[in-house]
Amino acid sequence: MNIMASDRDDTDPLLGGFSSPRSPRSPRRQQPQEQQSQNEKLDADGFTAYPASRAPVATGVPYMRNKCTTGIDGPIIAALTILCAFTRLYQIGKRATVTWDESHFGKFGAYYINRTFYHDVHPPLAKMLIGLSEYLAGHNGTFRFKGAYPEYVNYTFMRCFTAMFGIGLAPLAYLTCLQLNMQRRACALAALFVIFDNGLCVMSRFILLDEPLLFFTAASLCSVAGFQNIRHRAFSCEWWRWLLLTGCSLGLVSSSKWVGFLAVALVGLYTIEEFFNMYIDFVPARTAARHFGARAVALIAVPLAIYMLCFKIHFSILNRSGPGDSKMPPTFQVRLKGSPLGRQPFAVAYGSQLTIRSMYPGSGLLHSHTHMYPDGSQQQQVTCYSHKDANNDWVIVKPAGQDFNYTSDPIVTVRDGDTVSLMHKNTKRMLHSHRAHKAPITTDDYEVTGYGSSDWKDVNNNWRVEIASETSSAADGELHTITTLFRLRHAGTGCLLSAAAVNLPSWGFRQTEVTCRRTANRPSASTASLWIVERHTNPRIAPMDLRPLVRGSFIGDFLRLNMEMARSNNALVPDRDKHNHLESSPWSWPFLIYPMRMLGSWRKGDIKYYEVGNPLLWWVSALTCVLFPLQLAYYYVCRRRRISNVWAPGEELHFWNGAKLLWGGWALHYLPFFLMGRVTYLHHYLPALYFALLFLVFQIDHACRRLLGTGMQRAVVTVWAVAAVAVFCWFAPLTFGYVEDIKALTHRQWLPTWNIYSDKYVM
Asked: Alpha-carbon distance 480 to 529, whole Å?
């Protein structure tokens, strides 16, 4: 084995890094004083993670560290990559029909070709990569990814492009285990586990986001493992290279899916442990400050810059009006080519027809309809609605009693401080509030209704315009379309018209509650009380191009889109009263309780794909991860009881360095799903599975080194490899697509909960 410097430390990782003497295995004799002196010198000169104020303590022969060499590892990596490419690309174009979530992500890729703005719950990087694959495949953006692929869509190339990320998992697994100082046979076994897992394989064969996510997750793990392996050479070029690679990988994985932030959390916890060890090792403040600055740049600034750059590119490409316009504020929409907001009257006048948008993210447009509140005043409902609808239209008029002809009298613009009334165009009801009734959900606020008519002299129909800000250069005190933020203060009660994205029950069609917020109990400057005129029509005022008047803000658009993504993600809640054969709970994932059919038709002649992992690998890796805390407790007890033959010199540090990254990655990528309220699917476990497979190999390597000789170690690795390949081949027909009658595949249903042969639910 090629080695670099020695890898040892005088701290006890199981006790959080506190110094602790170590004893070699009992069968090994204590080394002579001369040899200990040599080892102490080697440790002090060759491996000092951080320059401490005290000298390290020698503990015997240092644990050897791997070094990747082209002559040895190059052919191994090449062979593993070729083998992985075969499993991912074999018959990848077999089904010429849009399969599973290709209908979503393929369509999103087409939006980039058409340059039309859309909205989705995920960050844009992985979808931009899909768009790139479609562009390289010659897709013209006209296919909407429904039904069979037409001849002009090279779907096989698109699938192969995505599969490249799945192919990259095998060499990354090998390199990661090499950086974690496993034996090369164990590194190859880890890559084989990744190659011959049916779940990872089948998900890489379609146009999905999961493979870019998995690839960048694996790259993040490999990078931080490489950085850990070179940490003794602080601030060297290689040290900086691994640190910056880690930061770049974190930026890429978090820009693909928000699940990628779990990898950020893993590296963050690793970094916290590093600084804790610096603290207890009395590292000089100046040295610690240099380390902090380096990590702040590489692990915070670089990922954030990549994340924001992906959105910058996203906004730059999608410069045409599209289906996602309504999720963004009017100041963004007006800058899109073809947006209906681009040309309209600028100054709002009495008699103008308006649509008014709440500036609170997720609220929508001021809306009313003929349905009444079931309680309270039982008057006409007033809500906010996020979609385009004729019931979003309002006419701004003078209060009742003020004679004004809106067709013949001179045009009068609405100004700051004016008292106005708003009439719902379709129902002719007035925007109304009163003290008599509380809002149905937010009971601290007053109810807002549609009530009365334009000729009723009711002060509760009147609202005072308060201009909060003007983003254009026309700061003349007038109410303007798009560029003016304003509040509507109720003339009778002094409360503010507000919408804070609180949804009404089913009687309100789950639309957003609109209330009149009392300024005594809430800040008047709240975003929920800010409104903007989005659409404006008035036959007496000529429309004009508003784009030169609107100032764009990338930071504002970036933050708003991320807030809308969060809201959309939180809205993906399961319906507990209705079974969905695609959904599954996190507790069932590690043990493959509910695999998933990837298409609805399961008849003979249909090409059937089944998302089932390699049961051998899933079940054993799950048990390994679940039982690891007990193993850790055993080693802790041995340490406390000073049992001397538990660890070989340097072995404890090696074990902790690998286990904390692999088991910690599994836990961080799996356990948070128990806290999520959104719908969950089996493929959400795949990032955690990658960590679990590598952790399984880590434990196999750990056990072999401790218990077996070289010959038996090779035998164990061979048995594991053969078993993994055999189980993969057994389920391969469902991975590569099975055409015949499914019942011809006998003995594939290993658990009664699997729905390979039959499903009691109609699909």
From this structure: 17
The DSSP secondary structure of 654-696, one letter per residue, reads HHHHHHHHHHHHHHHHHGGGGG--S--BGGGGHHHHHHHHHHH
How many residues are there in the chain? 763
Instruction: Give the CA angle between residues 117, 122, 124 to the nearest 5°.
Output: 55
The pTM for the full model equals 0.87
| Residue whose token pair is 């004016």 | 418
Task: Please report the pLDDT score of residue 93 as a whole number.
Answer: 94
pLDDT of 156 above 60:
yes
Q: What are phi and psi of 758, to 5 degrees?
A: -150, 155
Is the Cβ–Cβ distance between 337 and 283 less than 8 Å?
A: no
- Residue 645 banded pLDDT, cuts 50, 70, 90: low
pLDDT (tens digit, 9 = 90+) per residue, 314-334? 999 999 999 999 889 899 999
Question: What is the DSSP annotation of 206-261?
Answer: SS-SHHHHHHHHHHHHHHHHHHHHTTTSTTSHHHHHHHHHHHHHHHHHHTT-GGGH
Residue 31 has pLDDT above 80, yes or no: no
Look at residues 558, 469, 504, 48 and name the one whose alpha carbon lies nearest to residue 284.
48
DSSP class of residue 587? G
Beta bridge partners of 485: 469
Q: What is the mean pLDDT of the chain?
A: 87
Distance CA 649, CA 665 (A): 26
